[in-house]
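Researcher: We're teaching a course module on how sequence relates to structure. For the next exercise, students receive a sequence and then see the predicted structure as tokens, so they can try to spot secondary structure elements on their own. Here is the exercise chain.
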Amino acid sequence: MPDLNSGDLFPIGRFARLCRLSVKQLRHYDDLGLLRPAHVDPSSGYRYYTRSQTRAALTIGLLRTLDMPLPAIADLLAGDEQVLRGERDRIDGELRRRRAALRSVDRLLKEGLGRTDITLTDEPERRIAVQRASCAQEDIGRTYGECVTRLFTTVHDVQGPPIGLFPLDLTPTLDVAAAVETASPTETLPATPAATIIHSGPYEEISLTYHALFAWIHEHGHTPHGLVRETYLTDPRTTPPEHLTTRITVPL
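Model: And here is the predicted structure for the students to work with:
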């Protein structure tokens, strides 16, 4: 049993003040097994901590101010230093999403919810080669990029910009495809009447343009069907995101 009169053993209240935590937090960390007290009085249940535990307690407090989840903190304290890199990536991803949301709000403030540059077209039949894959919604961009890579390694007589083919319904698992017109087609996109709009800017903001297009379609009494077509008129490898141009076509 530790010497309760030792200068290295602190009751929970004093230890909490030393480590800039609350007694409630320390009790919670004990319940989770994150930071166990060095000694618990068997009669009173009172918790005591040692001086050697201050670094762990201060580390937990620091990481909680950074919104690191408690399970990740437990892994870090157990010696898994890769947790910090994972947390950095998580925070970076969240910042990217928030910046994209901010840009979308700025765009709405500038353009409003309505768009007047929507046109009805008669899409011609297109003879295409295709590469397909299935993915979750959050993986559409990466999966489409993989399809494009496979497509351009097999098609050598490309005739026009790449085309993304996507389902109308946003289900948990989506079938996406990359297509390109070619003199050696494997499939045909049928001719169809369609509504078309041009999206200018990053792909992350394309949902705003889709909103305007689908609102216009329904307000004008049309019914979308088939696969949505995105034609990439600029090359993302050489074009800044703010200058990307994408034609969205919805068959009617």
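Model: If you want an answer key for the exercise: The chain has a mean pLDDT of 88. The helical segments are 12-18, 23-31, 54-65, 70-77, 82-111, 140-154, 206-219.
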